[in-house]
């Protein structure tokens, strides 16, 4: 064979390998509409996806490419975020008001993202207005690739369970309440999926994976099965040490996976979900049925864990029992424990204190004295177009809280983060109610949760060996929490309270993580289909990043 033919064959082989090596694509078409829902028996306007509440499941494998074409048939602008998906180099797809122009009524937008090097239980939900209070959410299940071992046998089936508090007033009424400067108050009840009966069916002798997520507005909950213990196996993308629990606290925005074995008398059993740390407990039940079982569920429900001060101590101790499975592989073949986060030097510490106050007679929430307000043009867009000075100022929020954090300044809250710095973030909650915080674009190590106030000597209490890598952390009343992470994902990333009333009224910020190289190795360019709005509409496109 001549040298020219050899070259052509070699080139064709390389191209073929390139095609074969590309990760699979999954395509979805979603029609977002209003529809009547009645989770607590009171009909109200809900948000449906392809007619479903909760919405369709994205069932995928690590490194899959996800393409979701969203048609907005509501009468308001709309966005989805993909909670827990890290969007490596790609905050353009994150779906927050700080990164994307909304999908206008009657329009569509196609999200394109990859679940790169991730496994676990996540979800999507709307970030616009108070849409989260009306539904529009659903599960994202990311499985390990076939060649990477999972530290438990394949379950007979997997069930997604969305739990949380619910308001009967409707999302538009709730928004008016908040816009008027008031709190939405106490929820009306607790919901479990769409409240069908039975919720799920199990066959005797088989083991099932239940993926729980709390999509409520403000209430922590506790979940427990009648007569069936739970084995915790995964927490927000991390395989955990497989401890057994009779009940588990699940705070707003958090997800976890448990294994439940159908090893009891074949009949009906209750799944019980009850609120935590409210003055008056709210609860709900759902039927878990054995196939060919006989007999109703017992009316004797498993007891709630302790509440109030004793309950907070109980919940903190449960948090400390969640540990990283150091020998298990996650999305990559190397064991989770091969990453020794506890040996990295901290380069920056940020201490964040949440507070509430009045601004012009209206209720607001803030972080270190800054109550975030969204801008007409998304923050990421004005930064990319070099027009940030027309819209916001960086670093209005200091690394420590002011003397009186309840004196709030309403402004876009954007904090510069140095690319690839290893940072420590302390959350300190002086309020009487619990908080939960989520960071887009990252997972972090939740190294400590303790009562009182943080000080540098508290670092001796950090778990620097097997803290779970996750994306959401709770901060109990009059307590603090510490997380550690490397800012190695360039983009504009939202740190927010997962309690949407507080988020909507300012308890959030954005980290601007810019790569000095302006290289495609670190961040993708603005997608061709990305809508432009506000001050950047009509502006010439900046020079693109290069490889």
UniProtKB/TrEMBL annotation:
Coiled-coil features, chain-numbered ranges: none
Source organism superkingdom: Eukaryota
Name of the featured protein: L-ascorbate oxidase homolog
Pfam families per record: Cu-oxidase, Cu-oxidase_2, Cu-oxidase_3
Gene3D superfamilies, per the entry: Cupredoxins - blue copper proteins
Organism ancestry: Eukaryota, Viridiplantae, Streptophyta, Embryophyta, Tracheophyta
GO molecular function, one term: copper ion binding
Record key words, sorted: Glycoprotein, Signal
Claim: Glycoprotein is one of the keywords in the record: yes
Family: Belongs to the multicopper oxidase family.
Keyword Glycoprotein: yes
Domain Plastocyanin-like: 31-145, 158-292, 379-515
InterPro entries according to UniProt: Cu-oxidase-like_N, Cu-oxidase_2nd, Cu-oxidase_C, Cu-oxidase_fam, Cupredoxin, CuRO_1_AAO-like, CuRO_2_AO-like
Signal peptide: 1-21
């Amino acid at each position: 064979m001549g040298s020219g033919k050899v070259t052509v064959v070699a080139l064709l082989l390389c191209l073929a390998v390139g095609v074969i090596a590309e990760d699979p694509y999954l395509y979805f078409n979603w029609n977002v509409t209003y529809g009547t829902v009645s989770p607590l028996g009171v009909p109200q306007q809900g948000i449906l996806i392809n007619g479903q509440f909760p919405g369709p499941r994205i069932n995928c494998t690590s490194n899959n490419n996800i393409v979701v074409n969203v048609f907005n048939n509501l009468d308001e602008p709309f966005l989805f975020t993909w909670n827990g998906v890290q969007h490596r180099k790609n905050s353009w797809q994150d779906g927050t008001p700080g990164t994307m122009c909304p999908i206008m009524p009657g329009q569509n937008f196609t999200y394109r993202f990859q679940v790169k090097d991730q496994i676990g239980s996540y979800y999507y939900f709307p970030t616009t207005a108070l849409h989260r209070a009306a539904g529009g959410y659903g599960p994202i299940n990311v499985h390990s690739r076939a060649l990477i071992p999972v530290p438990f046998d394949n379950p007979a089936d997997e069930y997604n369970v969305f739990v949380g508090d619910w308001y009967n007033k409707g999302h538009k009424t709730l928004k008016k309440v908040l816009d008027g400067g008031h709190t939405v108050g106490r929820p009306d009840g607790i919901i479990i999926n769409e409240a069908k009966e039975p919720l799920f069916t199990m066959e005797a002798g088989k083991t099932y994976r239940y993926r729980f997520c709390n999509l409520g507005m403000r209430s922590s909950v506790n979940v427990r099965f009648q007569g069936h213990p739970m084995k915790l196996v995964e927490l927000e993308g991390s395989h955990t040490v497989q401890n057994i629990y009779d009940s588990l606290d699940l705070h707003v925005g958090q997800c976890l996976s448990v294994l439940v074995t159908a090893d009891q008398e074949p009949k009906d059993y209750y799944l019980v979900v009850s609120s935590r740390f409210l003055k008056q407990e709210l609860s709900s039940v759902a039927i878990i049925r054995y196939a060919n079982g006989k007999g109703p569920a017992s009316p004797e429900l498993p007891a709630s864990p302790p509440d109030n001060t004793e309950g907070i101590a109980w919940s903190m101790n449960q948090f400390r029992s969640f540990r990283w499975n150091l020998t298990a592989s996650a999305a990559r073949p190397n064991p989770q424990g091969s990453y020794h986060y506890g040996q990295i030097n901290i380069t920056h510490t940020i201490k964040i204190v949440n507070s509430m106050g009045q601004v012009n007679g209206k209720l607001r929430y803030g972080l270190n004295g800054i109550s975030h307000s969204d801008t007409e043009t998304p923050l990421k867009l004005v930064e990319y177009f070099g027009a940030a000075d027309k819209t916001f100022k960086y670093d209005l929020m200091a690394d420590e809280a002011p003397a009186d954090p309840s004196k709030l300044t309403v402004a876009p809250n954007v904090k510069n983060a140095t690319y690839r710095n290893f940072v420590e973030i302390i959350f300190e909650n002086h309020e009487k109610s619990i908080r939960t915080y989520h960071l887009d674009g990252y997972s972090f190590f939740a190294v400590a949760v303790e009562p009182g106030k943080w000080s540098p000597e508290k670092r001796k209490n950090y778990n620097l060996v097997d803290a779970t890598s996750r994306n959401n952390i709770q901060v109990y009343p009059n307590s603090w929490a510490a997380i550690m992470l490397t800012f190695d994902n360039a983009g504009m990333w939202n740190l927010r309270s997962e309690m949407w009333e507080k988020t909507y009224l300012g308890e959030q910020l954005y980290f601007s993580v810019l790569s000095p190289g302006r290289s495609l190795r670190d961040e993708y360019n603005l997608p061709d289909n990305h809508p432009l709005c506000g001050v950047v509409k009509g502006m010439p496109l900046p020079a693109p990043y290069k490889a």
